[in-house]
What we know:
By secondary structure, the chain is α/β, with parallel strands linked by helices.
Amino acid sequence: MDLGIKGKVALITASSKGIGKSVAESLSAEGCMVAICSRNKEELLSSTADIKKKYGGDPFWVLCDLNKQKDIENTVTSVEKQFGKIDILVNNCGGPASGNFRDLTDNNWQEAFEQVLLSAVRFSNLIIPNMILQEWGRVINITSLTVKQPVDNLMLSNSLRSGVIGYAKSLSNEVAKFNITVNNVAPGYTLTNRIYDLAVHNSKRLGKSHEEILVDMAKEIPMSRLASPEEIASAVTFLASKQASYITGNTIHVDGGLIKGLF
Protein backbone atom coordinates (compact mmCIF):
# COMPACT_ATOMS: atom_id res chain seq x y z
CA MET A 1 0.00 0.00 0.00
CA ASP A 2 1.25 3.47 -0.90
CA LEU A 3 1.01 5.55 2.27
CA GLY A 4 1.43 8.79 0.35
CA ILE A 5 4.35 10.19 2.35
CA LYS A 6 7.26 9.56 -0.02
CA GLY A 7 9.42 12.68 -0.06
CA LYS A 8 7.96 14.08 3.16
CA VAL A 9 10.41 15.33 5.78
CA ALA A 10 10.13 13.66 9.19
CA LEU A 11 11.81 14.70 12.43
CA ILE A 12 11.81 12.05 15.14
CA THR A 13 13.09 13.06 18.57
CA ALA A 14 15.05 10.79 20.93
CA SER A 15 15.61 8.51 17.96
CA SER A 16 19.09 7.03 18.19
CA LYS A 17 17.74 3.77 19.63
CA GLY A 18 14.60 1.95 20.74
CA ILE A 19 11.17 3.02 19.54
CA GLY A 20 12.44 6.30 18.12
CA LYS A 21 14.99 4.58 15.91
CA SER A 22 12.39 2.07 14.73
CA VAL A 23 10.08 4.94 13.78
CA ALA A 24 12.90 6.56 11.80
CA GLU A 25 13.50 3.26 9.99
CA SER A 26 9.81 2.74 9.25
CA LEU A 27 9.38 6.24 7.82
CA SER A 28 12.59 5.85 5.81
CA ALA A 29 11.17 2.64 4.34
CA GLU A 30 8.20 4.70 3.09
CA GLY A 31 10.52 7.12 1.32
CA CYS A 32 10.56 9.92 3.88
CA MET A 33 13.59 12.13 4.34
CA VAL A 34 14.42 11.54 7.98
CA ALA A 35 16.09 13.60 10.69
CA ILE A 36 16.99 12.05 14.03
CA CYS A 37 18.29 13.54 17.25
CA SER A 38 19.50 12.52 20.70
CA ARG A 39 22.17 13.39 23.26
CA ASN A 40 24.50 10.55 22.23
CA LYS A 41 26.67 11.25 19.17
CA GLU A 42 28.00 7.70 18.84
CA GLU A 43 24.50 6.23 18.84
CA LEU A 44 23.35 8.84 16.31
CA LEU A 45 26.20 7.99 13.96
CA SER A 46 25.50 4.27 14.31
CA SER A 47 21.77 4.69 13.72
CA THR A 48 22.34 6.97 10.73
CA ALA A 49 24.64 4.37 9.17
CA ASP A 50 22.10 1.59 9.81
CA ILE A 51 19.25 3.52 8.20
CA LYS A 52 21.35 4.53 5.21
CA LYS A 53 22.49 0.95 4.66
CA LYS A 54 18.96 -0.49 4.89
CA TYR A 55 16.95 2.16 3.07
CA GLY A 56 19.36 4.44 1.24
CA GLY A 57 18.98 8.17 1.34
CA ASP A 58 20.96 10.38 3.64
CA PRO A 59 19.50 10.60 7.16
CA PHE A 60 20.31 13.82 8.99
CA TRP A 61 21.28 13.88 12.65
CA VAL A 62 21.51 16.57 15.32
CA LEU A 63 22.72 16.44 18.90
CA CYS A 64 19.84 17.47 21.16
CA ASP A 65 19.08 17.38 24.86
CA LEU A 66 15.29 17.54 25.09
CA ASN A 67 15.52 19.33 28.43
CA LYS A 68 17.30 22.30 26.84
CA GLN A 69 15.30 24.86 24.89
CA LYS A 70 18.33 26.06 22.91
CA ASP A 71 19.05 22.50 21.76
CA ILE A 72 15.46 22.12 20.57
CA GLU A 73 15.61 25.44 18.71
CA ASN A 74 18.92 24.44 17.11
CA THR A 75 17.51 21.08 16.05
CA VAL A 76 14.52 22.59 14.28
CA THR A 77 16.64 25.28 12.62
CA SER A 78 19.21 22.70 11.45
CA VAL A 79 16.62 20.32 10.02
CA GLU A 80 14.75 23.08 8.21
CA LYS A 81 18.04 24.38 6.79
CA GLN A 82 18.92 20.87 5.60
CA PHE A 83 15.56 19.93 4.08
CA GLY A 84 13.68 23.21 3.74
CA LYS A 85 10.69 22.09 5.82
CA ILE A 86 9.36 19.57 8.33
CA ASP A 87 6.16 17.74 7.39
CA ILE A 88 6.01 15.09 10.10
CA LEU A 89 6.96 15.61 13.74
CA VAL A 90 7.24 12.60 16.02
CA ASN A 91 7.65 13.69 19.63
CA ASN A 92 9.38 10.90 21.48
CA CYS A 93 11.41 10.92 24.69
CA GLY A 94 12.97 8.53 27.15
CA GLY A 95 11.02 7.54 30.20
CA PRO A 96 11.37 9.74 33.28
CA ALA A 97 12.78 8.43 36.54
CA SER A 98 10.83 5.72 38.30
CA GLY A 99 9.68 6.12 41.90
CA ASN A 100 6.68 6.81 44.10
CA PHE A 101 5.74 10.11 45.71
CA ARG A 102 8.16 9.69 48.63
CA ASP A 103 11.11 9.10 46.30
CA LEU A 104 10.71 12.08 43.99
CA THR A 105 12.18 15.52 44.56
CA ASP A 106 11.14 18.85 43.06
CA ASN A 107 14.14 18.53 40.76
CA ASN A 108 12.89 15.12 39.53
CA TRP A 109 9.52 16.68 38.75
CA GLN A 110 11.04 19.66 36.94
CA GLU A 111 13.34 17.49 34.82
CA ALA A 112 10.50 15.13 33.91
CA PHE A 113 8.22 18.06 33.05
CA GLU A 114 10.78 19.46 30.61
CA GLN A 115 11.63 16.05 29.16
CA VAL A 116 8.14 14.64 28.69
CA LEU A 117 5.72 17.54 28.27
CA LEU A 118 7.60 20.75 27.58
CA SER A 119 9.81 19.19 24.88
CA ALA A 120 6.70 18.19 22.91
CA VAL A 121 5.24 21.68 23.36
CA ARG A 122 8.48 23.38 22.28
CA PHE A 123 8.98 21.27 19.16
CA SER A 124 5.34 21.64 18.16
CA ASN A 125 5.33 25.41 18.69
CA LEU A 126 8.39 25.80 16.49
CA ILE A 127 7.29 23.50 13.67
CA ILE A 128 3.52 23.89 13.36
CA PRO A 129 3.55 27.50 12.05
CA ASN A 130 5.22 26.30 8.84
CA MET A 131 2.85 23.33 8.66
CA ILE A 132 0.01 25.87 8.74
CA LEU A 133 1.57 27.79 5.85
CA GLN A 134 1.86 24.62 3.74
CA GLU A 135 -1.57 23.41 4.91
CA TRP A 136 -0.35 19.91 5.69
CA GLY A 137 1.26 18.30 8.67
CA ARG A 138 1.37 15.39 11.06
CA VAL A 139 2.24 15.57 14.75
CA ILE A 140 2.47 12.24 16.56
CA ASN A 141 3.37 11.98 20.22
CA ILE A 142 4.69 8.70 21.60
CA THR A 143 3.38 8.39 25.14
CA SER A 144 2.69 5.26 27.20
CA LEU A 145 -0.06 2.97 28.43
CA THR A 146 0.26 4.97 31.67
CA VAL A 147 -2.02 7.64 30.16
CA LYS A 148 -4.88 5.17 30.50
CA GLN A 149 -3.77 2.68 33.12
CA PRO A 150 -1.18 3.99 35.62
CA VAL A 151 1.73 1.72 36.44
CA ASP A 152 2.96 1.31 40.01
CA ASN A 153 6.19 3.15 40.86
CA LEU A 154 5.98 5.36 37.74
CA MET A 155 4.52 8.48 39.33
CA LEU A 156 6.23 10.88 36.90
CA SER A 157 5.20 9.02 33.77
CA ASN A 158 1.65 8.50 35.05
CA SER A 159 1.29 12.24 35.63
CA LEU A 160 3.15 13.98 32.84
CA ARG A 161 2.39 11.73 29.89
CA SER A 162 -1.29 12.38 30.56
CA GLY A 163 -0.45 16.06 30.19
CA VAL A 164 0.81 15.34 26.66
CA ILE A 165 -2.55 13.77 25.83
CA GLY A 166 -4.42 16.83 27.06
CA TYR A 167 -2.13 19.16 25.14
CA ALA A 168 -2.47 17.10 21.96
CA LYS A 169 -6.27 17.07 22.12
CA SER A 170 -6.42 20.85 22.53
CA LEU A 171 -3.86 21.39 19.78
CA SER A 172 -5.64 19.06 17.38
CA ASN A 173 -8.79 21.18 17.57
CA GLU A 174 -6.86 24.35 16.81
CA VAL A 175 -4.96 23.12 13.74
CA ALA A 176 -7.39 20.67 12.12
CA LYS A 177 -8.65 23.31 9.66
CA PHE A 178 -5.13 23.52 8.23
CA ASN A 179 -5.08 19.81 7.33
CA ILE A 180 -2.79 19.08 10.27
CA THR A 181 -3.49 16.05 12.43
CA VAL A 182 -2.29 15.57 16.00
CA ASN A 183 -2.41 12.10 17.53
CA ASN A 184 -0.74 9.97 20.18
CA VAL A 185 0.58 6.43 20.20
CA ALA A 186 0.57 4.79 23.63
CA PRO A 187 2.84 1.73 23.69
CA GLY A 188 2.41 -1.07 26.17
CA TYR A 189 5.38 -3.04 27.48
CA THR A 190 7.92 -2.97 24.67
CA LEU A 191 11.31 -4.67 24.42
CA THR A 192 13.58 -1.65 24.83
CA ASN A 193 16.41 -0.68 27.15
CA ARG A 194 13.87 1.28 29.21
CA ILE A 195 11.84 -1.85 30.00
CA TYR A 196 14.99 -3.81 30.79
CA ASP A 197 16.14 -1.07 33.18
CA LEU A 198 12.72 -1.00 34.87
CA ALA A 199 12.86 -4.76 35.27
CA VAL A 200 16.28 -4.50 36.91
CA HIS A 201 15.03 -1.72 39.22
CA ASN A 202 11.90 -3.65 40.18
CA SER A 203 13.87 -6.85 40.73
CA LYS A 204 15.68 -5.18 43.62
CA ARG A 205 12.43 -3.82 45.02
CA LEU A 206 10.48 -7.08 44.67
CA GLY A 207 13.24 -9.60 45.38
CA LYS A 208 13.02 -11.29 41.97
CA SER A 209 15.42 -11.57 39.05
CA HIS A 210 14.90 -9.16 36.16
CA GLU A 211 14.19 -12.19 33.94
CA GLU A 212 11.32 -13.14 36.23
CA ILE A 213 10.04 -9.56 36.13
CA LEU A 214 9.95 -9.61 32.31
CA VAL A 215 8.13 -12.95 32.34
CA ASP A 216 5.60 -11.53 34.80
CA MET A 217 5.05 -8.53 32.51
CA ALA A 218 4.31 -10.81 29.59
CA LYS A 219 1.82 -12.81 31.68
CA GLU A 220 -0.25 -9.64 32.19
CA ILE A 221 -0.69 -9.20 28.44
CA PRO A 222 -3.43 -11.13 26.59
CA MET A 223 -1.02 -11.71 23.70
CA SER A 224 1.45 -13.20 26.22
CA ARG A 225 4.46 -11.29 24.93
CA LEU A 226 6.05 -7.87 24.93
CA ALA A 227 5.86 -5.68 21.84
CA SER A 228 8.76 -5.08 19.48
CA PRO A 229 9.74 -1.47 18.75
CA GLU A 230 8.86 -2.13 15.10
CA GLU A 231 5.23 -2.79 16.05
CA ILE A 232 4.98 0.60 17.72
CA ALA A 233 6.65 2.22 14.71
CA SER A 234 4.05 0.75 12.36
CA ALA A 235 1.26 2.54 14.21
CA VAL A 236 3.17 5.82 14.09
CA THR A 237 3.80 5.43 10.36
CA PHE A 238 0.12 4.80 9.68
CA LEU A 239 -0.86 7.96 11.56
CA ALA A 240 1.60 9.88 9.37
CA SER A 241 0.03 8.53 6.20
CA LYS A 242 -2.53 10.01 3.80
CA GLN A 243 -4.87 7.17 4.82
CA ALA A 244 -5.00 8.62 8.35
CA SER A 245 -5.98 12.11 7.17
CA TYR A 246 -9.32 12.07 9.08
CA ILE A 247 -7.89 10.77 12.36
CA THR A 248 -6.96 13.51 14.81
CA GLY A 249 -7.06 14.14 18.54
CA ASN A 250 -6.87 10.43 19.25
CA THR A 251 -4.69 8.10 21.28
CA ILE A 252 -3.95 4.70 19.78
CA HIS A 253 -2.98 2.04 22.31
CA VAL A 254 -0.48 -0.51 20.99
CA ASP A 255 -0.41 -2.80 23.99
CA GLY A 256 -1.35 -6.36 23.04
CA GLY A 257 -4.65 -5.92 24.91
CA LEU A 258 -3.07 -4.98 28.24
CA ILE A 259 -5.31 -1.99 28.98
CA LYS A 260 -8.50 -3.34 30.51
CA GLY A 261 -10.82 -0.34 30.05
CA LEU A 262 -13.35 0.16 27.26
CA PHE A 263 -12.39 3.77 26.54
